[in-house]
């Protein structure tokens, strides 16, 4: 078990070592995992989070340290380097435990880890051939390789079925041409899961899924997005110019890529709900600590009912979001359908996190508008949770269709 040095506490926010806002009665193995993730986040990410945000650069070395603790392969079987949570049907719950703790301190590291585990590793493990899994997953589990997910394009965002990046069969190879946009971890990822069109005969049934190693000729990085939040996580365009990959790099069957993408996004949305819960918890804990020490009109501002009610509502929303998150994760671990529940969790958690961030800044007042305090970063980081891996509007479509048929 990881032995963390004495926690590095941000002198401006003295509450990083607070326990989670709710006792989830987690199994003992998940409690130990939670402790490991919390100690790592506090000791290794507290300073790095601020530096990554300011420099707009991801700290790959910190991610490698995280992976060395076994925190990057939680959704994988032991045969590929997993920690046993997959076999005990706790993989998605384990991922949620870790992602909440990591995102509590650094959302840029959190989204990198979420994409790596839920959008890349889980998809390859579920849909890939034994040969392909054996070749790639052990490197992903140890963090030797970082995985990324390539679905969105300039003309295919929420309407992912409209993608035009093409993969043409040529003997025992596929030749990829086109570009992908808004790809998390693009410049430092070692391997991509790419959705590409193999047929024009049908909009969605003409899409297939492939594994593409970054080292292959014809792969390059394009535009680097200048973002409002999660600035430490690089988001870039990925370009494919006559990139040849072996036919064995196909995941599943030709034409099944859109099905794979949607199934994978169910797990990804659970991961983003965990990110939102982590950010929301950070806002809550920092707001409580600040309200207890800030004085106005001769009293701690925590004594004012207006502040008390903001904190109450913040806590209730974050706890509700966490419960929705674990419900979806439990269903996915059990192999049951969870598209509706994952969408509900992502929708509610992301909106709760944004409300928490807004209220935390308000509680901090002018200080909340200053980069000297972390709530300013939380406010910027929270917004993307309502957008990526399906906007809040898309989540409402998913849920309403499930309810109304």
Could you please describe the fold and organization of this structure?
The chain has 405 residues and is of the alpha+beta class. The protein has 3 domains: 28-145, Orthogonal Bundle (Butyryl-Coa Dehydrogenase, subunit A, domain 1); 148-257, Butyryl-CoA Dehydrogenase, subunit A, domain 2; 261-404, Butyryl-CoA Dehydrogenase, subunit A, domain 3. Helix content is 49%, strand content 15%. The strands form 3 sheets. The protein has a 4-stranded mixed sheet. Strand 9 and strand 10 (299-300) form a beta hairpin.
What is the CATH topology of the largest domain? Answer: Butyryl-CoA Dehydrogenase, subunit A, domain 3
Q: Output the radius of gyration.
A: 21 Å
Total of helices: 10
Average pLDDT: 94
How large a portion of the residues is in β-strands, by DSSP E? 5-15%
The topology string of helices and strands comes to: HHHHHEEEEEEEEHEEHHHH
CATH class of the largest domain: Mainly Alpha
* The CATH homologous superfamily of the largest domain: Butyryl-CoA Dehydrogenase, subunit A, domain 3
Q: Report the strand count.
A: 10
Helix content: 40-55%
Shape descriptor: globular
How many distinct folded domains?
3
- Across the major sheet, the strand order is 1-4-5-8
Biggest beta sheet summary: 4 strands, mixed
Query: How widely separated are the two ends?
Result: 48 Å
Q: Which residues sit in consecutive blocks of at least 5 with pLDDT less than 50?
A: 1-22
Structural class: alpha+beta
């Amino acid at each position: 078990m990881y032995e963390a040095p004495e926690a590095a506490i941000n002198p401006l926010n003295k509450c990083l070592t607070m326990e989670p806002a709710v006792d989830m009665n987690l199994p003992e193995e998940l409690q130990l995992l939670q402790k490991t993730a919390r100690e790592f986040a506090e000791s290794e990410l507290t300073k790095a989070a601020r530096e990554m945000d300011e420099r707009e650069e991801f700290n790959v070395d910190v991610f490698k340290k995280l992976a060395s603790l076994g925190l990057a392969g939680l959704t994988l079987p032991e045969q590929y380097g997993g920690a046993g949570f997959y076999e005990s049907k706790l993989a998605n719950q384990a991922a949620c435990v870790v992602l909440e703790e990591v995102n509590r301190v650094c959302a840029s590291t959190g989204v990198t880890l979420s994409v790596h585990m839920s959008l890349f590793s889980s998809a390859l493990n579920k849909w890939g051939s034994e040969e392909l899994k054996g070749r790639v997953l052990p490197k992903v589990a140890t963090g030797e390789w970082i995985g990324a997910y390539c679905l969105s394009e300039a003309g295919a965002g929420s309407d992912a079925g409209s993608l035009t990046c093409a993969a043409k069969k040529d003997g025992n190879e596929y030749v990829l041409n086109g570009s992908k946009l808004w790809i998390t971890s693009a410049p430092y990822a070692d391997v991509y899961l790419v959705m590409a069109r193999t047929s024009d005969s049908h909009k969605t049934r003409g899409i297939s899924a492939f594994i593409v190693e970054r080292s292959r000729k014809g792969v390059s990085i394009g535009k680097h997005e200048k973002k409002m939040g999660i600035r430490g996580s690089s988001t870039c365009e990925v370009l494919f110019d006559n990139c040849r990959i072996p036919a064995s790099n196909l995941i599943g069957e030709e034409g099944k890529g859109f099905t794979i993408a949607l199934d994978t996004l169910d797990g990804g949305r659970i991961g983003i709900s965990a990110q939102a819960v982590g950010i929301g918890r950070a806002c809550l804990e920092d707001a409580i600590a600040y309200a207890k020490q800030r004085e106005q009109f001769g009293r701690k501002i925590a004594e004012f009912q207006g502040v008390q009610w903001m904190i109450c509502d913040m806590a209730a929303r974050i706890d509700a979001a966490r419960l929705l998150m674990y419900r979806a994760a439990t269903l996915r671990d059990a192999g049951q359908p969870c598209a509706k529940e994952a969408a509900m969790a992502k929708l509610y958690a992301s909106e709760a996190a944004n409300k928490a961030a807004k209220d935390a800044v308000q509680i901090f007042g002018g200080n909340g508008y200053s980069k000297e305090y972390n709530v300013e970063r939380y406010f910027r980081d929270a917004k993307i949770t309502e957008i990526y891996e399906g906007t809040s509007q898309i989540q409402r479509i998913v849920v309403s269709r499930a309810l109304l048929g």
